[in-house]
Amino acid sequence: MAEKSSFGGDGAPASHHLAATLAAYEERHLPRGTKGLALAAPMRQSELKMRQWRVLEAETAFPVALLKASALTHNAQWMRGYCKHFNVQIAPHGKTTMSPQLFARQLDGDAWAITLATAAQVLTAYGFGVRRILLANQLVAPAEIRVLARLLRDDPKFELYTVVDSEAGIDRLAAGLDAAGRGRPLPVLIELGLPSGRTGCRSDAEGLTLARKINSMPALMLAGVEGYEGLLVGTKRAEDLSAVDGFLDRLLRFTAELDGQSLFRGPNILVSAGGTAYFDRVAEAMLRFAPLSRPLTPILRSGCYLTHDHGFYRHLLAEMATRQPELFARLPAGGLKPALEVWSMVQSHPEPALAILTMGKRDVSYDIDLPLPIWWHRPGSTRQLQALSAGWKIDKMNDQHAYLRFPAEFEHQVQVGDLIGCGISHPCTTFDKWPLLLEVDDGYRVMGAINTVF
Fold this sequence. Notes:
It is a single chain. This protein is of the alpha/beta class. The protein folds into two domains: 22-68 and 337-451, Beta Barrel (Lyase, Ornithine Decarboxylase, Chain A, domain 1), CATH 2.40.37.20; 72-330, Alanine racemase (TIM Barrel, Alpha-Beta Barrel), CATH 3.20.20. It is 31% helix and 22% strand. The chain is built from 13 helices and 20 strands. The strands form three sheets. Strands 3, 12, 13, 14, 15, 16, 17, 18, 19 and 20 form a ten-stranded mixed β-sheet that branches. It has an eight-stranded parallel β-sheet with strand order 4-11-10-9-8-7-6-5. Strands 1-2 form a two-stranded antiparallel ribbon. A hairpin with a 5-residue loop joins strand 19 (436-440) and strand 20 (446-451). The longest helix has 24 residues, at 237-260. The two termini are 35 Å apart.
């Protein structure tokens, strides 16, 4: 397998290439009305570190999205150790956060690249300073192909990989590259798909035809094979895992077949799969590769490991821990830890055992589970931060309101102005609601800002 190498190729930490972007964000002025902050006047973003506002004393606006610094550090170290154990690379899916600060931490954590889903995201990440990107999706719009082709032509340090699943897609890529003025061949991976799934070749014979067609196109270069097993999450886990393993075996056989016919053209053979749900199965599958004609670069694409969550992915990781107990015991304790929380304030207590919170669908994900109440605190009180039981539940949300139900014995204790900290399920659809999140220490004191660009 390929050795890990410096992302920048110059021996510098990966974030060196994002340094100018990070510095520029710190010099930005946050306007009045910045979500999560109650600013009387514009304020330089770097001042957040000096102000050290206390969230638990209601010194921010509410709702406010928070990232716990200790959990981010822990998760980066945990995943680094996991990938090292299996000798695999990680190219985290950047669509989760679209954040220059978090991209920099992932790249400094030995990420091989950043994975993205759209041309717009590629252009955004390139603007941040990211110089190796895996576009794990079909690139079909002529204007987008041309603009990315110009980046490749004009910047020799920029590496872009994309995927194809049809002859029509290959033709469109080649035509767009030619229209932009052909430079380096664009490395492409053949995408294998699942029946009734989304993109990807449904048969290996179709994929073999594509490989031969790619090699007839001077503008393209066959670099590897890609797939996504994460769609196989249902209610019957044993059946899901069997299907995942079957798909991964197919991925391995297909790669070996292409290699046996000498169809790969890159220096390494890239094989990529592994969303956040089943990256353990993918990592183990990569160990089953028989020797190939050139070095193998196995790539996981988990996007949610850095922030994790309190719901969907937390349950899946707990299952993963039962499948790999010895490995989990050797990695930093606790597995991945939820870093992302959204805090809001009780704005109304209109009925017994019902409080209305100052957050809603515009602030927090609700596509898999509703927010999970985990903390209760009253600003100005000497009472410790109180962990909440399963009896506290958000059962409905409007655009700007959440309906918090709680046990009857708390009816006269919950007050307007109390703070409720919520965990989330599926971080991707929370990040896109916040242009700015606050990084906090374990005492919920603000340490700085995390920006996003969606």
